[in-house]
Specification:
Blueprint (H helix, E strand, L loop, with lengths): L1 H20 L3 E18 L2 E8 L6 E11 L2 E10 L18 E8 L3 E9 L1 H6 L13 H7 L14 E9 L6 E8 L2 E3 L5 E3 L2 E10 L2 E10 L2 E3 L8 E3 L2 E12 L2 E12 L7 H5 L5 E11 L4 E12 L5 E12 L4 E11 L19 E12 L1
Antiparallel strand pairs: 1-2, 1-3, 1-21, 3-4, 4-5, 5-6, 6-7, 7-8, 8-11, 9-10, 10-13, 11-12, 12-15, 13-14, 15-16, 16-17, 17-18, 18-19, 19-20, 20-21
Length: about 375
């Protein structure tokens, strides 16, 4: 009994001390539960299914802030994604916190410096100009960015998040914000085994008078990935990204545009990338609008073109959507879209495998989102 009493007493003292130390700090649990029913025409093959994360990725996380005094605070955020329809991890089953996992310091005058897995400056630049908010499931912009087809296997794409990264974000300077990130090499096993090299990612944005403008530059060092059917690992070539983004609000309509160009380094002669022709550069252009029709109703429209340079591979497409909020936390949504693959292009919404190169894609969904 004495040992038990001592244990309880010790635990009480620890909890009391913890409460005192946490007096100037806070930790918040947050998340999204999202699911939808999907109809898909994949090159003439029709299917219905239930999926997760159509308007916002299903997720939950913990974020915290501690006031250190003098305008300085310590912050962290750990966030995981999951599939609401079946309860599994989203995207990478080996990563507990696939979406975010970082810690750092923020100063009201000098900005923030954070370390870990976090959103890249290039993602922050583009996000306000995609009507579908760069959603990882139903945004056609994400479909174009993440598409993997024969001509661009060695040209690296920008996933939007970076592991092993250091990020500086400036304070708001009269509407201007500056971002700088350096990420060290990382290795993943899903969706295919791959190692990416170091990455430099820079961004700048301006917001004011109804106008939003952003620029970003990304330089990814070489890496490699293992693809089934190839005799050796395929080299991921050094790749540069040039991104511009604009939005302008007129009344209830926010007009949006972004353009990105992805340029791969020339492969060395007789390399697998050169022999297979997998290192073509490409561009993506998106024009759209977000309409706040009523306080509870939002309409999204986007038209896109993905063009692989030096080949006859391109994919024009469009998507329309509508969201209706029934409370501050709960909403319903619909999406409908079309993509026309030409040449050997195999673009479709993330998570969908195109049946054959050059086939068209038609998608329609209805879903529900709850935030907590």
């Amino acid at each position: 009994m004495r040992l038990i009493s001592q244990g309880i007493c010790g635990a009480t003292l620890v909890l009391a001390a913890g409460s005192a130390m946490a007096a100037d700090s806070s930790v918040t649990l947050y998340g999204v539960a999202d699911t939808f029913i999907q109809y898909l025409d994949n090159g003439g093959n029709h299917s219905f299914s239930e999926r997760s994360g159509g308007a916002a990725g299903s997720q939950f996380g913990l974020k915290g802030n501690e006031d250190l005094g003098g305008g300085l605070s310590a912050q962290f955020d750990v966030e995981t994604g999951f599939n609401l329809n079946n309860g599994t991890f989203f995207a990478d089953t080996t990563s507990l916190f696939y979406r975010q996992a970082w810690v750092g310091l923020n100063h009201s005058t000098y900005g923030s410096l954070t370390f870990g897995r976090q959103y890249e400056p290039s993602f922050r630049v583009v996000y306000p100009t995609d009507p579908f908010r760069v959603n990882e499931i139903l945004s056609p912009f994400s479909a174009d960015v993440l598409a993997v087809d024969k001509k661009t296997l060695s040209t690296q794409y920008d996933s939007g998040r970076a592991s092993n990264s250091v990020l500086y974000q400036s304070p708001n300077l009269g509407g201007v914000q500056l971002y700088g990130m350096y990420a060290f090499a990382a290795t993943v096993t899903q969706p295919v085994p791959a190692t990416t090299g170091n990455m430099l990612n820079l961004g700048a944005t301006y917001t004011g008078y109804g106008l939003y403008a952003g620029l970003s530059y990304v330089n990814q060092h070489p890496g490699q990935e293992t693809i089934a059917g190839l005799p050796t690992a395929l080299t991921l070539l050094s790749t540069e990204h040039f991104i511009g983004a604009l939005a302008y609000r007129v009344g209830i309509v926010n007009f949006q545009f972004n353009y990105s160009y992805r340029r791969a380094q020339d492969p060395s002669a007789r390399s697998l990338a050169a022999v297979l022709g997998t290192a073509h550069s490409l561009s993506i252009a998106e024009l759209g609008a977000t309409i706040q029709a009523t306080a509870a109703d939002t309409i999204e429209i986007a038209a896109l073109q993905r063009n692989v340079r030096g080949a006859h591979d391109n994919t024009p497409g469009f998507e329309i959507g509508a969201d209706h909020s029934i409370s501050k936390r709960t909403s319903f949504y619909i999406r409908a879209g079309y993509m026309k693959n030409n040449g050997t292009s195999t673009v479709s919404w993330p998570g969908i495998t195109v049946s054959d190169p050059g086939t068209n894609q038609v998608l329609a969904t209805v879903g529900m989102t709850h935030r907590f």
